[in-house]
Amino acid sequence: MTNPASYPIGTPGSPWGPAEVAAWLSHQSRQRSYETDVLAAVDRLRSRLDVEQYGRVDYAPDSYPLFAIRTRHWREELPCVLVTGGVHGYETSGVHGALRFADRHAADYEGKANLLIVPCVSPWAYERIHRWNAHAIDPNRSFRPDSPAQESAALMRLVEPLRDRVRVHIDLHETTDSDESEFRPALAARDGVVFEPGEIPDGFYLVGDTENPQPAFQQAVIAAVAAVTHIAPADANGEIIGSAVVAPGVINYPLKKLGLCAGITDATYTTTTEVYPDSPRATAEQCNEAQVAAVRAAIDFALAHEGRG
Question: Does domain 18-304 have CATH number 3.40.630.10?
Answer without folding.
Answer: yes
